[in-house]
């Protein structure tokens, strides 16, 4: 199965509620938050407004940065998402980076992660970021391959962070100047 020509990246909207919540619940099994900071107690319209406002740099909580969330849709079906942080604070410099992406399990191995990462790189490039930090778990071979395919170079100063349980978070920098 390959990507269709109809792959679309856009902010989540009213009509995406059920697909997005289903994706969130499915990805929790992989310990991945498809809808960052979403809670079932929050009205969907409030969540999408909050995400859109964050992209514009409005209503950003203290300690947070301007950020955005985009869904990837293949012929109208939600297949993945990418979150973009347009700047880094101390926490994100250590733990998150500029771009985070996820692909629903039934849509993996089709090049979607690469397309999501490249979209995120274009987004931060348009905001003036020349080199983006992207991180992944040391055991996530698919994400490592995606990051390398997108031009990732291991951080020369801090190539990984080790957690108390021994797991490693790998750190890569990607030049946005060569993003297709």
Distance between the termini: 22 Å
Gross morphology is globular
Mean pLDDT across the residues is 92
- Write down the CATH topology of the domain at 8-130: Aminopeptidase
The major pleated sheet works out as:
4 strands, antiparallel
CATH architecture descriptor text of the domain at 8-130: 3-Layer(aba) Sandwich
What's the short story on this structure?
The protein is of the alpha+beta class and 180 residues long.
Description of the molecule:
The protein has 180 residues and is an alpha+beta fold. Helices cover 31% and strands 26% of the residues. Strands 1-2-3-4 form a four-stranded antiparallel beta sheet, sandwiched between helices. Strands 5, 6, 7 and 8 form a four-stranded antiparallel beta sheet that branches. It is globular, with a radius of gyration of 16 Å. The mean pLDDT is 92.
Question: Which key features would you list for this structure?
Answer:
5 helices; Aminopeptidase; four-stranded antiparallel β-sheet; 8 strands; single chain; 180 residues
């Amino acid at each position: 199965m390959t990507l269709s020509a109809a792959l679309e990246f856009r902010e989540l909207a009213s009509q995406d509620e059920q697909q997005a919540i289903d994706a969130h619940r499915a990805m929790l099994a992989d310990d991945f938050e498809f809808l960052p900071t979403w809670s079932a107690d929050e009205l969907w319209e409030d969540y999408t407004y909050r995400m859109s406002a964050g992209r514009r740099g409005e209503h950003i909580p203290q300690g947070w940065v301007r950020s955005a969330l985009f869904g990837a849709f293949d012929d109208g079906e939600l297949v993945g998402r990418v979150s973009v942080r347009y700047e880094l604070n101390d926490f994100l410099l250590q733990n998150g980076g500029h771009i985070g992406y996820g692909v629903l399990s039934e849509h993996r191995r089709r090049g979607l992660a690469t397309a999501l990462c490249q979209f995120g790189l274009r987004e931060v490039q348009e905001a003036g970021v020349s080199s983006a930090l992207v991180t992944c778990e040391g055991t996530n071979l698919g994400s490592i391959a995606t990051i390398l395919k997108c031009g990732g170079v291991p951080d020369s100063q801090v190539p990984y962070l080790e957690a108390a349980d021994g797991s490693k978070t790998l750190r890569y920098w990607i030049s946005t100047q060569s993003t297709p």
